[in-house]
Amino acid sequence: MKLLRLVPPGLRIPFMRYHRIAVALSTVLFMASAVLLVSVGLNFGIDFKGGTLIEIETPEAPDLADLRDELNALGVGDISLQEFGASNDILIRLPLLDGGEEVQQVAVHAIQDALAVLFPEIEYRRIEFVGPQVSGELIRNGTQAVLVAIVLMMLYIWFRFEWQFGIGAVLALVHDVGLTIGMFVLFQIDFDLPVVAALLTIVGYSMNDTVVVYDRIRENLRKYKQETMLELADRSLSDTLARTIMTSVTTLLALGALYIFGGEVIAPFVLAMIWGVLVGTYSSLFVAAPLLLYVKPVRNVDDDEEDA
After folding, report:
1. 20 exposed, middle or buried (CB, 10 Å; 0-12, 13-18, 19+)?
2. Mean pLDDT over residues 59-75, rounded?
3. CA-CA distance, 151 to 215, in Å (whole number)?
4. What is the chain's mean pLDDT, rounded?
5. Would 103 disulfide with which of 27, 75, 99, 266, CB 3.0-4.6 Å?
């Protein structure tokens, strides 16, 4: 069987020709994400702002508008409905009510009584309640998890390479996480615990891509001592381009299948992953390597040094 070559041998793509445009674009997008985060804020899901989530399966597909009117007529808060997967699979979101857990339970029982009348053979798949104290702890823990992951990645890069590489890698990571959060703010997609898990996964994915590029740059720093940093970056990115394309495309294929067939429950997680893979691939090509042009890594690396 003939092997598919994604990148012809010896091809040199002038990535660095566009590094000023890429850095300017990334700076604008990151600043826009920060402004949106401060001015608009995230649309926190029940995991973070509290409330009750009820997942049901009805015998036949209900009319969502009529069902929403029926439930909101109960006077137990602004209830939202969402169809996911099959047309008879419904998510019911009840916001956190004043009065604590007892009031919340009364509201849930009222909803169940109304649903029992409308659909005698209804099936409850899950009923989850998240209180205000738990939601506050989840916000703090989720933020700490992302920050700790970024700090640990910086330490890893610092020990594995030189500190200049660590700065470039961490800036690329912050760029990827910042743009992903900005996308969630812009489209007001539910931001809950699975999305935090997706952010942590994006941190790992982006760092893996960056380490591959940095490894090749460090290797070429020793082999091609007469080349400028700009030429070395182009050479290294071209050398690793096939691996970058293969990793990104195969990951996106799997995520695309999950997004289409996985249903609404995991849709925010998968969407964050898809965006994170796209941004991470872009940043490994046009952000991480160009940043080395500014921090200027040391070139007199000991040739006898062994890789960690």
Report:
1. exposed
2. 84
3. 20
4. 82
5. 99
pLDDT digits (tens, 9 = 90+) for 275-290: 989 998 888 888 888 8
Alpha helices in the chain (DSSP H): 19-39, 46-49, 64-72, 100-118, 132-160, 163-187, 193-223, 229-261, 267-286, 288-295
Is residue 173 within 8 A of residue 248, CB to CB? The reply is no
Separation between Cα atoms, residue 246 and residue 244, nearest integer Å: 6
Cβ partners under 8 Å of residue 243, min gap 6: 212
The pLDDT of 114-133, averaged and rounded, is: 81
CB 71 within 8 A of CB 93: no
pLDDT band at 30 (very low <50, low <70, confident <90, very high): very high
Residue 143 CB coordination number (10 Å): 11
